[in-house]
Amino acid sequence: MEGYKARKADPPLPPLTARHVFDWLMEVGPADVGAMGQVPLGWSTIRDWADGTFQRLSAWEFRTLRKLSAEYLAELSAAEDRNRPAPWSPGRADIDPKTEEQQLRAVLG
Q1: CA torsion, ordered 85, 87, 93, 99, to nearest 10 deg
Q2: 52 vs 44: CA distance, rounded Å
Q3: What segment(s) does the record annotate as region Disordered (predicted)?
Q4: Residue 44's pLDDT is what?
Q5: The whole model's pTM is what?
Q6: What is the mean pLDDT of residues 2-20?
Q7: What is the DSSP string of 15-57?
Q8: Which of 11, 34, 57, 89 is the most buried (most CB within 10 A)?
Q9: How far apart are CA 37 and CA 34, in angstroms?
């Protein structure tokens, strides 16, 4: 890790060992629709999908699908902030949005 820190580089991501769970999330849909918009997948939605597709989920797979759904919606909500860096980018903590806006206004007039 120290080598990555010294080079200011991100270490490689670990392999996705439970790819099937991610694939299932995309198959069932990453979220349910509630009265006020999208909500994390409900337990019954996951169970109905598993029954309908003849998937036998272990307890950890069941819980992980629900957790992934909640995380998906949290990221979707956080992404509404136009100043938030993309999740795959390293981000720029050194950039002050107000300063950037002032500089842009100075250029554009």
Answers
A1: 0
A2: 12
A3: 80-109
A4: 97
A5: 0.65
A6: 76
A7: P-TTHHHHHHHHHH-S-EEETTEEEPPPHHHHHHHHHHHT---
A8: 57
A9: 5
